[in-house]
Specification:
2 strands; mainly alpha
Length: about 350
């Protein structure tokens, strides 16, 4: 019973708690987003001091075009992490999207308008299989998604006999190599996707459900959140995002390989963490994730331009994730104790 004489239901308490979490989250996410943006500017300016070509507008365009892939992938990984999960099947699903796009569709195929969505749906089924194993079979997310990655990669190896064939669909080439108003098409696509991802994660009822599940699954269930459906959705979205990245990559490079997704798993997690999301779920912002993805892309571009070993980027990304886990170790122990009870 509240001060007005009305009974306070679980849903009301959940909404009030959500408003309080939202206010705190806005503050944390704003600080994280601004910090990442400042770091991006500082890196670009520092790179210009090292090499004037690195800070030019053409270099900024290159960063945005290359960042397009990681932004899409990090959105999918981010919504999975938001619910307390993790998707390790992304590299294999990226490869699946690229190989199916080149071998099933190829260039000059008038049926690509429905075959490309079909490829994305098939990739989504990989995420659905992961979700089924995690939710109903109670397999830990990292084990289930790793198993799916091995299964998909093995199936693709058998399907291609070790040598992917075919060419990039015309739509994928237009997306990655076209221009609009003198600006590369991937940059427009990046802006559109970032806006849509922000609206979904931060302004839709589904996004609020994901935050609720990641914060406290039992409380979310008591408040009427469709927990099972909302735990399935992130893995399906993540797999479809990976498939879209695979299609986009073949449009960018004009072909597919069996290892085309290998370099994206660690960056997809690191971008989410850099953006201010909790690796344990319940906290995060897609705007921050976009900033994290661009920051990693800038860093990778500078490392490549300076002729440094690409492994240095991997070390940095791994260190970021390790530091995040160390900073959250107390929260992790609390969650593990709660799961034990």
């Amino acid at each position: 019973m509240n001060l007005t004489g009305k009974t306070t239901t679980d849903r009301d308490r959940f909404a009030q708690a959500g408003d309080a979490r939202g206010s705190a989250r806005i503050s944390r996410e704003t600080i994280s987003t601004v910090s990442v943006a400042v770091l991006c500017v500082v890196l670009l300016m520092s790179a210009r001091l090292i090499n004037p070509a690195l800070g030019s507008w053409s270099q900024v365009e290159t960063v945005l075009v290359l960042g397009f892939f990681l932004v899409i992938l990090s959105f999918g990984q981010g919504v999975v992490i938001l619910t307390g999960g993790l998707d390790l099947s992304l590299p294999a699903t990226i490869t699946m999207g690229g190989i199916l796009a080149t071998s099933w569709i190829g260039a000059g195929n008038p049926a690509e308008w429905y075959l490309l969505p079909a490829v994305l749906i098939l990739c989504g089924l990989v995420g659905l299989a992961s979700a089924i194993g995690i939710i109903w079979l109670r397999v830990p997310p990292f084990i289930m998604t790793m198993a799916m990655s091995i299964i998909v990669a093995s199936a693709l190896l058998g399907y291609t006999k070790g040598t992917p064939r075919g060419s990039a669909p015309d739509a994928a080439v237009a997306l990655m190599k076209g221009e609009m108003l003198g600006v590369p098409a991937p940059i427009w696509a990046l802006i559109g996707f970032a806006l849509a991802g922000w609206l979904f994660q931060s302004r839709s009822v589904y996004g609020r459900y994901l935050y609720a599940i990641g914060t406290n699954m039992d409380a979310a269930r008591n408040a009427g959140v469709p927990v099972t459906a909302m735990r399935i959705l992130p893995y399906v979205l993540s797999a479809m995002c990976a498939g879209l990245v695979g299609i986009s990559l073949v449009g960018y490079s004009s072909g597919a390989t069996l290892r085309m997704g290998d370099d994206y798993l660690l960056p997809s997690i690191a971008a989410v963490v850099i953006g201010g999301s909790s690796i344990l779920g319940g906290r995060g912002s897609f705007v921050g994730t976009v900033g994290g993805a661009l920051l990693l892309t800038i860093l990778g571009t500078i490392i490549s331009a300076l002729g440094m070993d690409f492994g240095l980027r991997t070390i940095i990304e791994g260190s970021i994730i390790l530091i995040a886990l160390l900073l959250l170790r107390e929260e992790l122990f609390q969650k593990l104790r709660a799961m034990g009870r």
